[in-house]
Design brief:
The chain is mainly beta. It contains four helices and 16 strands. The strands form three sheets. It has an eight-stranded antiparallel sheet with strand order 14-13-10-11-12-9-8-15. Strands 2-6-3-5-4-7 form a six-stranded mixed barrel.
Amino acid sequence: MSLFLCFLLFLVSSATACDRCVHQTRAAYFSRASALNSGACGYGSMAPGFNSGHLAAGIPSLYKDGAGCGACFQIRCKDKTLCSSKGTTVMMSDLNYNNQTDFVLSSRAFMAMANQGMGRDILKLGIVDVEYKRVPCEYKNQNLGVRVEESSQNPNYLAIKLLYQGGQTEIVAIDVAQVGSSNWGYMSRNYGAVWDTSRVPAGALQFRFVVTAGYDGKWIWAKSVLPADWKSGVVYDSGIQITDIAQEGCSPCDNETWK
């Protein structure tokens, strides 16, 4: 973990530190809504309910082996006669294997980039030139959620999926311990937003997360999350929300709000 944080520091210090880096690329859209349910982040049938269905699959450098799952981006197409200057905000829920575009959007998100009444016109294009930047995810009155996956077997195996992560960071490590204990054990990223361990502490469980934040990483504690009788298929409130903004290294930098 210390090597990762040092590497992160090097990346930021090697260029202009910035909250919002603007990138130029192209974007397409999923023609079938069912594609959203099979995303590499593992959200499954829950995916269409996130961010009003404004979702995206991102290339590997954005997916980050699953660490990018749940990240939010503001994206707008560059045809000013067709598209609004605000664009739309999408949440990453999948990995994009197509090297022709950085993003493949849900059709709802793709249409939302257009000016009012021109959604069908942008769909006809199929692929458009866009620019985008990472922005904080905002979940009003909603804490970070911990969903116990159906594969979990209390007390022998625990798999969790993280939902509703706010801020502009990635979770890069998770530890778990019994509430009140300092005997922490690590969890491994199984895939996407799913973490697991076969060494499950007894009793009620607490978690601590390492997130990329500012120029470095930081620990964030969720001191009482799962009850001793935790059950699969249930989403538990972590009692915390992440609001940190991780710095990027880039030029140009754009901290203005696209309207």
